[in-house]
Amino acid sequence: MNEKDCIMLQYVAEEQSLTKAAERLYITQPALTYRLHQMEKEFGVPIIVKNAKGTRLTPEGEYLAQYSKKMLDELGRMKEYIANMRNEVKGNLRIGVASYFGLYKLPPLLKQFRDMYSEVQMNVTCGLSTEIIELLIREEIQVGVVRGEYPWFEGKHLLHDEHICLVSQKELAMEELPSLPQICYKQPRFYAGSYAPLPFGETVSAWWHERFHEPPLVTMQVDSYETCKEMVKHGLGYTIIPGIFVSPEDRLHKVELFRKNGQPMKRHTWMLYKEHSLQLATVDRFVSFMKEQHRQ
């Protein structure tokens, strides 16, 4: 089973259709079917089975597809290390970023890095910060960008931070907050394993309990900062979110929050990586580039 066979099995597994898999491989369906039959003879087991909904892999075929994915991953790593033995900045760079950073911050950075190193191929995954952490642990990505505080004990660099702010349609008296409707940001539920962050809500609660002896009047709970802001714009209450989500065009009142000891309430964005990945010239250059672009 060679590299082309591994790719073929991946496409068949993903598409569950010989026609679509053949299109992605730029070959005809009969040619794909012939090669699958040859593999069935080689291994002595059925690999695919057809039904009314299309084509699916047999249990043996699924095992071969999983094995082929491991082979492709190992082959990719081998090619990267071979290239980096000559200190060449080329090959694949696998990055995982929190969705907000991927949408608003990453594109111009990748454009600049790509202009510097045109032979680097970018593979970018966006998701929840906890998902990015898990990908980094499994080494499915080489560099991760996450928002929030995580127990990470390898390479870590602060890219930037932003104030946590009270956001409202108009200026509010702080002492009146307990009687005013609050639109509360609530983090989505997810499995975080041992890499659970300090929840944003706990940070806000600590600030609240320093000032008030009664709970906030929460009238809505939403799982998006942007949605919190839109609710405020429509006069449904005030919210407490990172100030970076509010622009002058929103025409909202924004107050930066501080703890009683004078410490500003902030949300941090971190770049994370494993130290041994810096042996790859491409990863090392990208990490250095990000540090240079985000000097404190």
From TrEMBL:
The gene is cynR_3. Belongs to the LysR transcriptional regulatory family. SUPFAM superfamilies: Periplasmic binding protein-like II, Winged helix' DNA-binding domain. PROSITE patterns: HTH_LYSR. Keywords: DNA-binding, Transcription, Transcription regulation. Residues 1-58 form the HTH lysR-type domain. Gene3D superfamilies: 3.40.190.290, Winged helix-like DNA-binding domain superfamily/Winged helix DNA-binding domain (1.10.10.10). The keyword Transcription regulation applies. It comes from the Bacteria. This is HTH-type transcriptional regulator CynR. It comes from Paenibacillus konkukensis.
